[in-house]
Amino acid sequence: MKDMRYIDNMASLTLHTDLCIGCGLCTTVCPHGVFSQEGPRARIEDLNGCMECGACAVNCPVAAISVDPGVGCAAYIISGWIHGKDKASCGGGTGCC
Amino acid sequence: MDNDLMAFGVRAAKADDIPSCGDGRERPGYRVCGFVTSFLETPVGPVPVVSTDLGWRDYGGGFSARWNLGRSHYSIAPGLYAVGAPDAVAPVLVTANYKMSFDALREALIGCDAWLLVVDTTGINVWCAAGKGVFSAAQVGALVVKTGLKALVSHRHVILPQLSASGVRARDVKKICGFTALFGPIRASDVPAFIQGGMRADTAMRRVTFTFKERLRLTPVELSLTGKPLLWALPVLFLLSGIGPGIFSLSQAVTRGGVACVALLTGVLSGAFITPVLLPLLPGRAFSVKGGLAGLVCGLGLCVFYGGRFDLRILAALLLWLVAVSSWLAMNFTGATPYTSPTGVEYEMKRAIPLQIGAVVLGMIIWLAAPFTG
Ligand code: SF4
Ligand code: SF4
Question: pTM of the predicted model, to two decimals?
Answer without folding.
Answer: 0.85
